[in-house]
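Weekly puzzle thread! Below is a chain. First person to post its structure in token form gets bragging rights.
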Amino acid sequence: MKSNMHEQTNNTHSLSNLPKVITDLIIAQNNFDSVAYANCFAETGVMLDEGKTHTGRIEIEKCIDESNKKYKSVMKPLEYTENGTSGLLSAECSGTFPGSPLVLKFHFEIVDGQIQHLNVTD
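Winning reply:
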């Protein structure tokens, strides 16, 4: 396992070298822990998912809690690239939703170790 992200080429990181906040987000999702998931965001962070915008940790926590109960979705990271404070994670998501598993794209804006903005697309 490389400990220096700068050794990676083309700003593509090995999956063992994801930014801590993204690793924490994946762990929280896979443990169905909506509180830990929301705590990966800045207090005023924004998440766009399924055509809806959720602003702030309380709204994000509520959304993820409902999603966890409905879909039991887990994430398997496939690839991560970054450009400055922006990152793109491709992850296989599986659960009780139609079409499972799906590969989704998680577009992150990370500042000071917290997610400021997340847009989930397919």
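Puzzle host: Confirmed. Bonus trivia for everyone else. The two ends are 29 Å apart (CA to CA).
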